[in-house]
Amino acid sequence: MIFTNEEYADIHFCYGFCDGNVEAAVREYRRRYPNRRLPSAQVFSRTHQNFRNFGLGSNVDHNRNRQNNNNQNRILRAFDNNPRLSSSRAAHQLQISKSQILRTLRNNHKHAYHLQPVHHLHPGDPEQRCIVRVLVGKVGGQLSIGLGDMSQLAAFDSIS
């Protein structure tokens, strides 16, 4: 049975009020809060033990969120520095699980780099090729890339 934070606080208070006597804590809780669900004796002892082991739940969540934010920043920085980085290599380099890498990328609308072989042209590809030829500038059967004195020339066959 799950209780609210307020109920857990009252459970722990009654447990401490009764000096760790579980049966007395159950009776005290029933006396103080007659309109609430009555937790079992196990709930009292587990609540106290969890508090001793883990402290306040909100602090645990806060530390976890801080760690996740630090990891998120490291992951995004790694992919900004090297967009061709794979999720496996990033996980190895950053010592973070691959699933957390992929989750962080997905949550930030990014994708890990992967090669995608192209086996055929898609509709619209010839038009895009023509636009590129016009933008770059086809001159006399050769393509001038316009890098000043480091210009590169590439011969192209005519497109039918």
TrEMBL record:
It comes from the Eukaryota. This is DUF4817 domain-containing protein. InterPro entries: DUF4817. PANTHER family: HTH PSQ-TYPE DOMAIN-CONTAINING PROTEIN, TRANSPOSABLE ELEMENT TC3 TRANSPOSASE-LIKE PROTEIN. Residues 5-55 form the DUF4817 domain.
